[in-house]
Structure formats: structure tokens, C-alpha cells
Write a structure and sequence with these properties.
Blueprint (H helix, E strand, L loop, with lengths): L6 E5 L4 H12 L3 E6 L2 H13 L3 E6 L5 H15 L4 E4 L14 H29 L2 E6 L2 H5 L5 H21 L4 E8 L5 H4 L3 H10 L8 H12 L10 E4 L6
Parallel strand pairs: 1-2, 1-4, 2-3, 4-5, 5-6, 6-7
Helix pairs in contact: 1-2, 1-9, 3-4, 4-6
């Protein structure tokens, strides 16, 4: 198993890509700590992990609340004594075109997607630096690389995440901490599946593989980057998009 006895925190692990990543990591031997604003969903993920024979624990965490993050990290360190992997997966969308986007829509997406990633990364990196070991993986998006109609806030947040990823890789490499990002394309998550059929068909047509990706396919990318197989990879942005941007 590729992550045997590693302690991994996955934010937004209650559903979608986060849940798939939590389950995949547990299969590979990781002790998975699931953070989510929705504790019920986080606990469902952990129940699945435990029913398959894995180790997991759920916490209700708002990634915009630094004090809550610090307190939760301290609790995890008391019980598990280390944090090997952080997956900054928590994020939201609140779409509108530039002329119609409200300040609230802008602030909320930036606060969770960008500042939330900063909060978790900064607080947990300090612990990893003390141990001189760790992996931080950030959720970017093809939207952060190429933009998307109606997503000024989301694109800006994900472009910012890419910038932080490359900066952290430069700063933390001397502490033996690898930092990379995964940039999913159109993935079949519960949120996406609720979209109108014509929109889903448009998404499929844009991909060279003519389909949506699965959360499990993104989870596999996270698994590779978290494992020792990627021990010489840092500062990279791995697109998992079916060729949507070629």
C-alpha cells in the first residue's frame, strides 16, 4: 500500500472529489482525517472508510476560521502525533457574469477557495516544517488556467491557488515539503449532475475523451502526487480534464 500509516487531512471530504479521495487514501493505508463544514457528510465518509477496514476521523471545520483550524490541528496531533499529507480540497462556486456578480458572491468564493487554502496551508506547513517532511496538494481547476464564462470569482480563486502552490513549493522545498496542485476539468460530482442536460452535453463535447471525469479519477491523481512515486515532483499543476483545454 502506497500510503501505509500516513496521516492525511482532506478538507471538503464529505462529498464529491473530497470523499472519493478520502476513500482512495484509506484503501492505500492512510489514516484519513475528514474535514467538512457539514459534519454529517464528513461522518458518512468516515463510516465508509471504517466499514472497509480503514482508519478515519471526522471534524466539522470551516476553513475560513483560523482559530477552529488551529484547535482541530492540535487535537489531531494529540491523537495521531503527526500530519503527513494535506489535501486542500474545500471550495465553492457562486457563478455570475462580471456585470451581475455581487460583492457577496466575490467575497464568499475568495474567502473559502483562496483564503481557506492559505489558512490550512500556513497552519499545517508550520508543523510539517518542524518534522522536515510533508506533502501539500491544492485543488486548482482548468478554470484557473484558462478562465470560464460567468466565473470571475472562481477563476480568480483557482489562479491564486496555482500561484500559492508554486510559491509554497519554492519556500518549503528546503524543509522537504512537496507542494503540488491538481486541476480538474468537468467532473461528475453531485453538483455537476444537477445541471441541465444540454449543459452536461456541452461539457462532454469539450473534452477530447467525450465524457465527464469521475471523482475517482481525480482521487487517483491526488494519490500519485501524495505517494513516494512522486517524490521528485513539486510545484507542478496536474490537469485531470480529459483534454478539455487542448
Amino acid at each position: 500500500m502506497r500510503l501505509i500509516d500516513k496521516v492525511a487531512i482532506i478538507t471538503g471530504g464529505g462529498s464529491g472529489i473530497g470523499r472519493a479521495t478520502a476513500l482512495r487514501f484509506a484503501e492505500e493505508g492512510a489514516k484519513v482525517i475528514v474535514w467538512d463544514i457539514n459534519l454529517d457528510e464528513a461522518e458518512k465518509t468516515v463510516e465508509e472508510i471504517k466499514s472497509a477496514g480503514g482508519t478515519g476521523k471526522a471534524y466539522k471545520v470551516d476553513v475560513t476560521d483560523r482559530k477552529q483550524i488551529e484547535n482541530t490541528v492540535n487535537s489531531i496531533l494529540e491523537e495521531f502525533h503527526k500530519i503527513d499529507i494535506l489535501i486542500n480540497n474545500a471550495g465553492i462556486t457562486m457563478d455570475a457574469t462580471l456585470m451581475k456578480m455581487t460583492e457577496e458572491q466575490w467575497d464568499r468564493v475568495i474567502d473559502i477557495n483562496l483564503k481557506g487554502t492559505f489558512n490550512c496551508g500556513q497552519i499545517i506547513a508550520k508543523h510539517m516544517a518542524q518534522r522536515e517532511s510533508g506533502v501539500i496538494l491544492n485543488a486548482a481547476s482548468v478554470v484557473g488556467l484558462y478562465g470560464n464564462f460567468g466565473q470571475t470569482n472562481y477563476a480568480a480563486s483557482k489562479w491564486g491557488v496555482i500561484g500559492m502552490t508554486k510559491t509554497w513549493a519554492k519556500e518549503l522545498g528546503k524543509k522537504n515539503i512537496r507542494v503540488n496542485a491538481v486541476a480538474p476539468g468537468f467532473i461528475s460530482t453531485p453538483m455537476v449532475e444537477k445541471m441541465p442536460e444540454n449543459v452536461l452535453n456541452m461539457m462532454k463535447e469539450k473534452a477530447l475523451l467525450r465524457r465527464l471525469g469521475t471523482p475517482e479519477e481525480v482521487a487517483n491523481a491526488y494519490l500519485f502526487l501524495a505517494s513516494d512515486e512522486a517524490s521528485f515532483i513539486t510545484g507542478a499543476v496536474l490537469s485531470v480534464d480529459g483534454g478539455v483545454v487542448l
